[in-house]
TrEMBL record:
Region ranges (Disordered): 275-298
Xref: Gene3D superfamilies: 3.30.70.270
GO MF terms, alphabetically ordered: diguanylate cyclase activity
Record field: transmembrane: 12-31, 43-63, 75-95
PROSITE patterns: GGDEF
Organism for this UniProt entry: Shewanella sediminis (strain HAW-EB3)
Catalysis: reaction(s): 2 GTP = 3',3'-c-di-GMP + 2 diphosphate
Listed name of the protein: diguanylate cyclase
Entry cofactors: Mg(2+)
Keyword field: Membrane, Transmembrane, Transmembrane helix
GO cellular component terms given for this protein: plasma membrane
Enzyme Commission number(s): 2.7.7.65
Entries under PANTHER family matching the protein: DIGUANYLATE CYCLASE DGCM-RELATED (PTHR45138:SF9), REGULATORY COMPONENTS OF SENSORY TRANSDUCTION SYSTEM (PTHR45138)
Enzyme class: transferase
Amino acid sequence: MYDILPVLGSGLVISGALLLAMAIAPVWKIVRQLPTGGLRYSWGFLILLILIFIAGYVIYAKFSPVQFSQLFDLVVPIIFFGGAIFVFVVCSLSLRTTRDIMQNYALKQENITDSLMGIFNRRYLDRRLKDETERALNYSQPLSIFLIDIDHFKQVNDNYGHQVGDLVLKNIAQLIKHSLRESDVLARFGGEEFVVILPRTKDSTSYTLAERLRHVVEDFQLTLPEESDKDSLSISVTVSIGVAGLNAQCKDCQCLIENADRALYQAKRNGRNQVITSKSGKTDTKMNGGLIGAPEPR
Ligand SMILES: Nc1nc2c(ncn2[C@@H]2O[C@H](COP(=O)(O)OP(=O)(O)OP(=O)(O)O)[C@@H](O)[C@H]2O)c(=O)[nH]1
């Protein structure tokens, strides 16, 4: 019986080394899924540690002075083997957990994203606007919203087709998104309408921001290669923006949307491509970049 102890001893250590080598695969998959950064480097460092352990196991199996002549000599190989099982199980479970978390995150994102525009959808907007309104009221902070509508968008569809219309919508959404601050929330309200939530933003500031946004859209040209003669096609659009903010008369999200909608309607009636701020029936107007009425301080 004691004859097999040396085989058993080195067998346990080598099997442990193999298990450690197998543990590298799940860790490597985790590394590949992570974006460049501290966490990715930490998991990469774990691979280096595992490699060092494997070298240690192999060196022990080859050069250990222990003869494995009695059962007690197997204690260290058993600990090595147990340690390797532990590392393998932890690494495999980490991969499964990482995948589950990423899948859940992707599902959550899908659930709150508009698939055409790549911005938040109406479901998310309704919830977020309610939360932001409650937070603003609780902490007595200002809150503004924009209701943005692309002008004469039907003509884009009619002139260039629905697919080009979709492309215009997508590009305008991304243009607006990248023109906003990190703290602002952009969502599709429906059709060719967007809502921007501007937490901690007063009417006067939001008016300036809306004007800047209107200019950004006005200056943007979407260039598409024309299929027939390879000439490029440039499409530009303008937007009308209704701005509304919380105040003594308007203290919930429904009122915010209604006021912004009213202001937007006014902007459309005034000739489009302009910003109107709703303020207890009074409106501040800029038309085609020219100042017609300055916004009143809050
Ligand atoms: N391509 C495309 N078109 C859309 C989408 N959603 C809404 N539309 C179009 O947007 C157009 C909106 O038209 P209207 O409500 O008449 O408004 P408008 O032509 O922009 O005119 P004003 O808003 O009054 O300036 C309609 O032709 C819709 O079909 C979409 O997801 N993709």
